[in-house]
Design brief:
By secondary structure, this protein is mainly α. The protein is built from four helices and three strands. A three-stranded mixed beta sheet has the order 2-1-3, with no helix packed on it.
């Protein structure tokens, strides 16, 4: 099967979009397909791109050209300070020594999901850390 390598129809708009994507990614913000399409429309309007549809098909090609894919965010790797964690563990242990074991409960997985940011973002490599919440 022969595969064609498709080039961008509007290279300048895609270059601007990719530059913006890299800047946003550097600040650990969540980027979704919808956000990329919206931003592409913004750059297209500024660059006077006409007769162009910002579709999911175009987006799939854009992501393939720039090696962008959806990645799951992996924990809070960049937000943890080892010294603070060590001090916090000592503090918790000193507080818990006064309680019986049956009165100590682990609530590590308890969370309020109403304002939880997305667990996935578009990325070019592994996605580490918690994203900065927009809005």
């Amino acid at each position: 099967m022969i595969r064609r390598s498709r080039t961008a129809k509007h290279k300048e708009m895609e270059k601007c979009l990719f530059t913006w994507f890299c800047q946003v990614h550097a600040h650990h913000l969540v980027v979704t397909d919808h956000l990329l399409i919206e931003k592409a429309g913004y750059f297209g309007k500024r660059l006077k791109v006409e007769n162009f549809s910002y579709t999911t098909g175009w987006l799939a090609g854009f992501k393939k050209r720039f090696n962008i894919s959806m990645k799951a965010l992996c924990g809070e790797a960049e937000s943890a300070d080892a010294v603070t964690i060590a001090v916090g563990r000592d503090d918790v242990q000193s507080i818990l020594k006064d309680y019986a074991k049956y009165n100590i409960h682990n609530c590590d997985k308890t969370a309020l999901f109403l304002c939880t940011p997305p667990g996935k973002t578009l990325n070019q490599g592994p996605a580490r850390g918690t994203p900065v919440r927009m809005g």
